[in-house]
Write a structure and sequence with these properties.
Keywords: Endoplasmic reticulum, Lipid metabolism, Membrane, Signal, Transmembrane, Transmembrane helix. This is Seipin 1A. Pfam families: Seipin. There is one protein chain. The protein has nine helices and eight strands. The chain is of the alpha+beta class. Strand 4 and strand 5 form a beta hairpin.
């Protein structure tokens, strides 16, 4: 019996954890490097985030899908050298487009980007104090710029890719120098699924407990004779004892009925006898006046008999 209970507990734990895992969703987090094509007038890089249906220069081999209802935040990290060329360029334009499975643009953003300004004295002082780390390669003369390029809620039509384009400012053709570019995508769950995600293990414990109680009720209700034979045998013995106690009572009732029927038959027999006596008396009265005294005595005797019979009837009915 203990093995059965342990098996039910393990089974309930697996069922509870499985139900919570089916209900809960994990937030999406992806980080990939982007490579801009500088052979184009406006260098472009495409990051594929869907199932691979869009054929627009996606280089990402491992595809992933964003669940519907998630709020997606897309960030772009640019690592640029603090060169005179980049400082002379100043501002450039960064365009981002969200592309659906059909290849349509369902969202876009555009924003200016530039290096953080640092004056010449500060650059010289920084170079003086950081000379040894710079020579050893511990530090580098670079700047990292992180920009949120897109924010959207996944729905229908489903999103497939993000296309990022670098564009020079008006009146110039120069584009910034880049060491590397990295795109980061993370999603925010809806509040209900976020609650399930935060309390995932607590819900697993409670659901497993409820499933275990349900299994116990099912076991007791449907398989009582298989797992609890002693209770069933005790129930059978109790029913048998009740039947044994009931049989004498029913037998006594049957005996009473037999006695009553016997008394009724005796009463009917005596009544028939009285009727026969009365008929004989009437016949004797018609026979003649000579037998009047005899008939009177017979009437007295019949009256006495009637009284005796009445007394006997009262006694029988009282019994």
């Amino acid at each position: 019996m203990c093995m059965v209970l342990v098996f039910l507990m393990v089974l309930a734990a697996f069922v509870g954890i499985g139900l919570v895992q089916l209900w809960a969703e994990e937030p999406v987090f992806v980080r990939e490097k982007l490579f801009f094509d500088y052979t184009e007038v406006n260098p472009t890089a495409v990051f594929c985030a869907g199932g691979g249906g869009f054929d627009g220069g996606c280089y990402r081999k491992k595809q992933m899908g964003v669940p519907v209802g998630h709020t997606i935040h897309v960030y772009l990290l640019l690592v640029m050298p603090e060169s005179d060329f980049n400082r002379d360029i100043g501002v450039f334009q960064l365009n981002a487009e969200l592309i659906s499975i059909n290849g349509d643009v369902i969202g876009k953003s555009s924003q200016p980007v530039m290096l953080r300004f640092t004056s010449l004295p500060l650059r010289l002082a920084r170079t003086f104090f950081m000379a040894i780390p710079l020579l050893l390669g511990i530090s580098s003369e670079t700047q990292k710029v992180k920009i949120e390029i897109l924010r959207y809620k996944e729905g229908y039509p489903r999103s497939e890719a993000v296309r990022v384009t670098l564009a020079p400012r008006a009146g110039t053709l120069s584009l910034p120098q880049l060491y590397e570019a990295e795109i980061t995508m993370n999603s925010q769950l809806p509040w209900s699924k976020q609650l399930v995600h935060n309390w995932k293990w607590t819900l697993s414990v409670w659901i497993s407990l409820y499933v275990y109680i349900f299994f116990l009720i099912l076991l007791v209700g449907c398989f009582r004779q298989l797992f609890f034979p002693f209770t069933t045998s005790a129930g059978v013995e109790r029913d048998a004892s009740v039947e044994e106690l009931r049989e004498p009572v029913m037998g006594g009732r049957r005996n009473d009925r037999v006695e009553v029927s016997d008394l009724m038959s005796k009463w009917q027999h005596s009544r028939r006898k009285r009727k026969a006596i009365f008929l004989n008396k009437e016949v004797s009265e018609i026979a003649g006046s000579s037998a009047s005294s005899i008939s009177l005595t017979r009437e007295d005797k019949s009256a006495v008999i009637e009284e005796d019979v009445g007394d006997s009837e009262s006694v029988c009915l009282g019994g």
